[in-house]
Each structure stands twice: as C-alpha cells, then as structure tokens.
Write a structure and sequence with these properties.
nine-stranded antiparallel beta sheet; two-stranded antiparallel sheet; mainly beta; single chain; Virus Head Decoration Protein, Chain: A; 160 residues
C-alpha cells in the first residue's frame, strides 16, 4: 500500500512522567534540602532530616540515592525556566521502583539496559560514567531518546 510517513517515532514525553504504571512504586518524602528538586531528577535520602534532597557537588557515593522525583497530580505553584519542581519543605513524589522519563545531560553511549549515572556537579542524569555516581538498580529501558534528550529509565529494585 503506497503512502507517506509523517514521522517514524513519537516523543518520549515530559521530564518526570511515570511511563509504565503496573510496576510502579512511588513514595512521598519531604524536600529537606535547601534547593529545588526538578521533576525527573535523582534524589538522595537524608537520614538525619528524614526526607530527600537534591544531589550536591559534595556527594561522593551513590549509596544514598533512592529514586527519581516524578510529576504529581495537581498544579505546581511555579514554572521555572528549567521546568517545574518541588520547593524546599514540600512533599516530593519519588519513584523507587518502575519506569519514568528523564531528561539527559549527555546522550553518548546509551544502550538498552545500560547503567544510568548522576552528575554530582549539577544533579543531571547521564549515560557517561566518568566522575559520576551510578544510580542504584537503574537502567535505560530501550537505549533510545528523542530530540529533547528525553529517555525512559527503569528502577529495577527499591533502594530503601
């Protein structure tokens, strides 16, 4: 059958969207840090303050990384130039198992089931291992990304 194709792929979605709901476990924590936590960003559990915070440049180990901040249902109070976020003191929905879409800083070397890393200097997710922290139990789902550098990642097991 003859015809024309307008596009071959669909966009992956928006940063921080849950992409496959049947296997999803989301827990709510308080943002106990001093920085905003953008949707789709990896978060660290702060045992002292019993909440989560954004990744900082002083973080040198991945043992406290527990998941990814995902979009909640409701209207966010602010729209920053870099996207929507959770402000300090707000409840943060954290994906601790399941799949979601994230924006990548670097898209080189992405492979299906490849390791996901966090750049501690800015908290951005990447596929590059050099000087970055491995997000525990987290893999790229398909190894594909769209034009906005949005890719799907899967957290295979909880890190609580």
């Amino acid at each position: 059958m003859a015809g024309k194709a307008i596009g071959k792929t669909l966009p992956f979605g928006y940063r921080g969207n849950v992409s496959r709901t049947p296997d999803t476990v989301i827990q709510s924590y308080t943002n106990v840090g001093t920085d905003n936590i953008p949707y789709g960003a990896a978060v660290i559990y702060d045992a002292t303050n019993k909440g989560v915070r954004a990744v900082k440049s002083t973080d040198s180990t991945a043992s406290d990384l527990i998941g990814i901040a995902v979009r909640h249902i409701g209207q966010p109070k602010a729209d920053a130039p870099t996207g929507w976020y959770y402000a300090p003191g707000e409840a943060v929905d954290v994906l601790v198992r399941g799949s979601c879409t994230v924006e990548l800083k670097a898209v080189t070397g992405i492979a299906p089931r490849g390791q996901v890393y966090v750049d501690p200097t800015d908290g951005e997710l990447t596929s590059v291992s050099t000087s970055n922290l491995a997000l525990p139990n987290t893999k790229f789902s398909t190894g594909e990304y769209d034009g906005a550098k949005i890719a799907e990642v899967s957290i295979l097991a909880r890190s609580i």
